[in-house]
């Protein structure tokens, strides 16, 4: 099962929902920025971890189907991030922290 490593994000790989998943980059500087973005304490990404496409602005993509759909084209190629892409959409804050200690 492919899912997203970002804190509070419950997106999973599912056909037709338009969300793509990206493996963490090999570049150590870029990789640590991705890890930091996930906001998980002492989180180290492995090759199994991925971030989903909702965390990247359109500028970070080389290809994105919605870019082509907005032009009226049917573009079925998978979304592809730029080589130096960084997640730049702020993570949602958890609003309800009252139940934090209940378990
Ligand atoms: Zn996500």
Write a concise synopsis of the structure shown.
The protein has helices at 28-37, 65-69; strands at residues 21-23, 50-52, 61-63, 80-81. It has 2 helices and 4 strands.
Hetero groups bound?
A: zinc ion
Helix content bin: 10-25%
Strands, total number: 4
The helix/strand class is little secondary structure
What series of H and E elements makes up the topology? EHEEHE
The number of domains is: 1
Shape: globular
Q: Gap between N and C termini, in Å?
A: 26 Å
Radius of gyration: 15 Å
The number of helical elements comes to 2
* Strand content bin: 5-15%
Task: Order the strands across the largest sheet as they lie in space.
Answer: 1-2
Name a few traits of the molecule.
binds zinc ion; 103 residues; little secondary structure; globular; disordered C terminus; two-stranded antiparallel sheet
Report on this structure:
This protein has 103 residues and is mostly loops. It has one domain. The chain has two helices and four strands, in the order βαββαβ. The chain has helices spanning 28-37, 65-69; strands at residues 21-23, 50-52, 61-63, 80-81. A two-stranded antiparallel ribbon has the order 1-2. 19% of the residues are buried. Bound molecules: zinc ion. Zinc ion (ZN) is lined by residues 4, 6, 9, 11, 51-52, 54-55. It holds the Pfam family THAP. One of its GO terms (molecular function) is sequence-specific DNA binding. Keywords: DNA-binding, Metal-binding, Zinc, Zinc-finger. It comes from Mizuhopecten yessoensis. This is THAP domain-containing protein 1 A.
């Amino acid at each position: 099962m492919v899912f997203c490593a970002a804190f509070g994000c419950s997106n999973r790989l599912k056909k037709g929902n338009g969300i793509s998943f990206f493996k963490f980059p090999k570049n150590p500087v870029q990789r640590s920025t991705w890890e930091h973005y996930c906001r998980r304490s002492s989180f180290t990404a492995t090759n199994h971890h991925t971030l989903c496409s909702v965390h990247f602005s359109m500028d970070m993509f080389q290809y994105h189907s919605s870019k082509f759909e907005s032009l009226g084209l049917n573009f079925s190629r998978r979304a592809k991030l730029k080589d130096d892409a960084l997640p730049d959409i702020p993570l949602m804050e958890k609003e309800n922290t009252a139940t934090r200690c209940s378990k």
